[in-house]
Amino acid sequence: MPFERIAEQRLRQAIDEGWLDDLPNRGERIDLEEYFATPEDVRVAYSILKNANCLPEEVELRNEIAALERTRANTTSPGDRLVLEQGIANRSSRLELLRGPAHRR
Prior knowledge:
Layout (H helix, E strand, L loop, with lengths): L2 H14 L16 H5 L2 H12 L5 H17 L4 H22 L6
Helix pairs in contact: 4-5
């Protein structure tokens, strides 16, 4: 049996058994305008990165900043706090550069 028929059969079963009834945004139109406004080569690159579980640098920086802030909140040593604050400042500067002039005001 071809894969398409198996997939179709499983989807029909899921619909019949109500497995898809409680999905978020059920019945709402999907806005694909932004998706198709993105050049195809960029969409392909994003898809490859997503499938490889690679995060954009901006997201990685945000995660690092959040982790450093949590560590700083639990640190009592002034020297350690200073090192953490410098790390936060460096990553925040890099994040601002990545975001570009449109986000700086």
